[in-house]
Amino acid sequence: MKIGEVKIAEDSDFEVLKNLIDDHSNWKLAYEKAGHTKVWTQQTENCNFKMVKVQTIFNNISASTMFDVLHDPDYRKEWDEHMMSSVDIGYLNPNNDVGYYALSCPTPVKNRDFVVQRSWLDMGNEKLMFNHSIEHKDFPPKKGFIRATSYLTGFVIRSLDAGCFFGYVTQTDPRGKLPPWLVDKITKKFTPRIITKLKHAAEKYEHWKMGQKYPNFKPWIYPELTIEYKKRVQKEDCQLSSNRLIVNEEAEDE
Fold it and tell me: Which GO terms describe its biological process (predicted)?
């Protein structure tokens, strides 16, 4: 889907995601580690920042657990030390929602935030999820943050006999004045560390979840919970604004 486009994800959108993960044509291998982890990069025409792709195998972690970890907003507070704020704005339908996410960046880089539409599809042995940047009238750009752009961030998780396959692809423009070569270098360096952190988080998730007051509260699995407890988002509230472009043009890192 295009930046700013708000619509229910279709089968063709998920096929694009799977193709990005599985097809290595025009990708450059940037990192490889024994233990199945590989990182590729690809330069595209629509963005100055490279697309990054990761494939790995997580042993002894089920596809269902990994899917839960990626979805569960309360658990993310436990393992993502860069998360400053996360707001579930509401849902478009039970498999498409809208959210706000703010993250801290090391000094002197200014903190970033995003408003994204997230879409997912659970087909049992294969689970798919991706997001892209949109806008929402109640979450305009604000002082102290640079509104970054997610062209695409997606995950493909597949069940294996002793764990799961994990595919991850992302292309993000942090905006501001950071040079693309620096962002690309940092992304390639830290992506394997993020994967390791995610693995450790998944290993602890089931124990953590069972200790919560409502361990079966998983609206990403049970659509009736989404409809009952979450607010419906109106498409007209999620349009690109001229305000956003002006704020980003003026926003700079220190």
Answer: lipid transport
